[in-house]
Amino acid sequence: MEISALQKERANYQPKLPIALQGAVKVKEGALTQSVDNQEDIKKLFPNTYGMPLVEFEPATEFNNAKMNVGVILSGGQAPGGHNVISGLFDEIKKLNPENRLFGFLMGPGGLVDHKYLEITAENLQAYRNTGGFDMIGSGRTKLEKEEQFEKGLEIIRKLDIKAIVIIGGDDSNTNACVLAEYYAAKKYGVQVIGCPKTIDGDLKNDQIETSFGFDTATKTYSELIGNIERDCNSARKYWHFIKLMGRSASHIALECALQTQPNICLISEEVEAKDMSLNAIVEDIAKTVAYRANQGNNFGVVLIPEGLIEFIPSIGRLIQELNDLLAAHGDEYLNLDKVAQREYILAHLSSENKSTFETLPEGVARQLSLDRDPHGNVQVSLIETEKLISEMVGVKLEQWKKEGKYNGKFSPLHHFFGYEGRCAAPSNFDADYCYALGSSAAQLIANGKTGYMAIVKNTIAGTDKWLAGGVPITMMMNMEKRNGEMKPVIRKALVELNGAPFKAFVAQREKWAKETCYVYPGPIQYWGASSVCDITTKTLFLEQNK
Length: 547
Ligand code: FBP
Prior knowledge:
The protein has 547 residues and is an alpha/beta fold. Helix content is 43%, strand content 16%.
């Protein structure tokens, strides 16, 4: 495989570890835990993995030389740093005992079920150290939830003499990791399951998880691109750029990018929902800013739109809920119909309120909302062209105002969608170190007999030597939610908090950003050079943790 000069140099970067993981390690157990909500239900569903204590690692004098083979799975969307979790895991299990072996299951959880794997060795890992992407073993979205999948997985686990599986994934994948841990524990198979918090979306966080890996690099990459667009926009002064940003339901990515680049407008889905805003109200607000700037002679601007926005507009959210239930209950019957018949089928089955919302949406958007869900029951928001929908509606409103003599500017919109551009970027120093430490922690949780835990690293706005590593029981983060029409135990998603410091910092400045041109151009991620540039965390993490 030919590699770039950057990749070659970057392979030599030695990620930094928290002090507790630098030598021999021991476990300090903390308080027993409870789930965030629905305690009785969760306890009943997870009798073997519920209520376990928090775990923190401490330096020790004696080495544990646990003999253990480990299997690792990358699950869901790519996030920068996945290869470093694997490197941290590999190095730590080899440190424990050089005979330990690591197997990577291929193309996500499906690799465990289908017995497709690769042994990870020092040689084949070298080219992937500190690189982005999940291409070393691939990723996938197969949902691990059925007993027959667990039993099929067990066959290969036994064959390779694997003691534990590490699942690197987002909230849904870690929920499944916990279900698998509980199943193997209930059957007394002696197989441990450990999770790792991955997702660029930044929505897998809580009191114990400060941030999910990949968020840092992905938002820095998008901010570089947004900054470049802002600079172009401020040079040509003739376009309005509508930029949709990945992030699924949560607006963390959009908010972080706004804090880094100071665009004219950034929509936050969680605020739209809290203020019960209609699509028309959102459009009118944007049109007012366009008109204000036009009056100042500024027929240009930048608007950031989180990809999940549409789900948070209350009337559309209600429609999506009903569509989710409808598709879950009538999936096969519906999928066999052609496009026109599918629309008629939906109109015939929706309640009258949701039917009228469905009918008011442009046909393309209505169709995108009724497409098949992903394996976890989520609407595939990355496929919905919200940026075009909104800019078109803004254009219509401005035309109307023009006719009424209220506006006399020029409105030339351009559209962008940033998502895939950042998910495989070379990890920033933060993500490279954080992921390596998560991999190391996962190995230590296994060596110390834990199952149903997620590896964690805390105190991340301090220097790496002050980072604290350990584990949190996955059940602690769970509550009951409706999925595919049924109540299920799931990890609670962290949405943008409207009383949180990042959102407040944004609100304090957004009016100025709308009226004036205050763009900031962050430039590309730096790997070598001044620490003030190379080692900065995200503004979100800094504002949230700097209490
Ligand atoms: P995860 O939740 O699996 O980390 O994926 C995040 C994400 O990048 C979302 O931001 C986006 O909506 C989705 O994946 C896109 O899915 P796909 O990779 O299947 O196109």
